Amino acid sequence: MKPYEIDENGERILEILASDGKSCARDIAMQTGLSEDKVNEYVTRFEEDKIILGYRTNINWQRIKQNDVKALIEVKVTPERKVGFDSVAEMIYRFSEVKSVTLISGSYDLLVQVDGQNLREVALFVSEKLATIKGVVSTATHFMLKKYKEEGVILVEQGTSKRLPVTP
Fold first, then answer.
1. For residues 63-77, average pLDDT
2. Please, which pLDDT band fits residue 161 given cuts at 50, 70 and 90?
3. Residues 97/116, Cβ–Cβ less than 8 Å
4. Can you point out the beta strands (E) in the chain?
5. How wide is the angle at C-alpha 42 spanned by C-alphas 38 and 46, nearest 5°?
6. pLDDT of residue 149
7. Cβ distance 88 to 136 under 8 Å?
């Protein structure tokens, strides 16, 4: 895949939107020195070219849905001739339970994040859906117990440091 051509203004606009998806064209224009029309042109082009894939809000779901279960599943795959890991990855990412699929290096090939309402639901997904896919050799499931930071945002309340001061 050929890298997407982007100039400094476009990159700055993307950085602003990545840190605050609620930024309007007027605010971005003030931060970049561009006109609102020019900012809108960039944003429209980025949306059409699938550089901007959507806008979202980071929500601390741990505080709302305390019984939901999230799991990271390492998946070992036998790659297929001419398509490698892509066809198995596609079969996996089409399941509604799957939140992300990433090709990784190391002992396993894919890292799959799955959300469920309880442990049994995730276990059934692994045993009845994921493990039965042709090309899946093995899996290792890790249940996420607590998130401390997500997308650069700290999710837990920060108290004072418990570390002792270092003296010379």
1. 88
2. low
3. yes
4. 69-77, 98-103, 110-116, 136-144, 149-150, 153-154
5. 170
6. 86
7. yes
By the 8 A CB rule, do 77 and 149 touch? Answer: no
Domain ranges of the chain: 8-48, 67-145
- 3-class DSSP assignment, residue 84: strand
Pick the CATH number of 67-145 from 3.30.70.920, 1.10.287.70, 3.60.15.10, 1.10.260.40: 3.30.70.920
CA–CA separation, 78 and 111 (whole Å): 15
- Can you give the pTM of this predicted structure? 0.71
8-48 belongs to CATH 1.10.287: no
Residue 1 has pLDDT above 70, yes or no: no
100-137, pLDDT tens digit by residue? 999 999 999 999 999 999 999 999 999 999 999 999 99
Strand ranges (E), 7-97? 69-77
Single-letter code of the amino acid located at 51? I
Measured in whole angstroms, how far is the alpha carbon of residue 159 from the centre of its chain? 28
